Amino acid sequence: MEIEVRCFATLARFTPGDGFFELPDGATAAEAIAALGIPADDVNIIFINGKAAELASPLAEGDRLGLFPAVGGG
């Protein structure tokens, strides 16, 4: 299946060149993160189709996966 991937802030370098990524059917957000080469501990917030999700959340054909690192400030 093909999903759209957007990685933000310090994770931006992991966004695929054209923004799309192939995964096996039934893959989870955690499996997508691993396949993209992103250390799981670096991902703090996950969105699927604009809604908050978890590592175990399943993905489907055409989903939009957004990944954010921990954000700090002072």
Outline:
With 74 residues, the protein is mainly beta.
CATH topology: Ubiquitin-like (UB roll)
The value of Rg in angstroms is 11 Å
- Domain tally: 1
In terms of DSSP E residues, the strand content is 25-35%
Describe the structure.
With 74 residues, this protein is mainly β. The protein has one helix at 29-35; strands at residues 2-7, 20-22, 45-48, 51-53, 64-68. A five-stranded mixed sheet has the order 2-1-5-3-4, with no helix packed on it. Helices cover 9% and strands 28% of the residues.
List its salient traits:
5 strands; Ubiquitin-like (UB roll); 1 helix
Could you outline the blueprint of secondary structure elements for this entry?
Blueprint: E1 2-7, E2 20-22, H1 29-35, E3 45-48, E4 51-53, E5 64-68
Parallel strand pairs: 1-5
Antiparallel strand pairs: 1-2, 3-4, 3-5
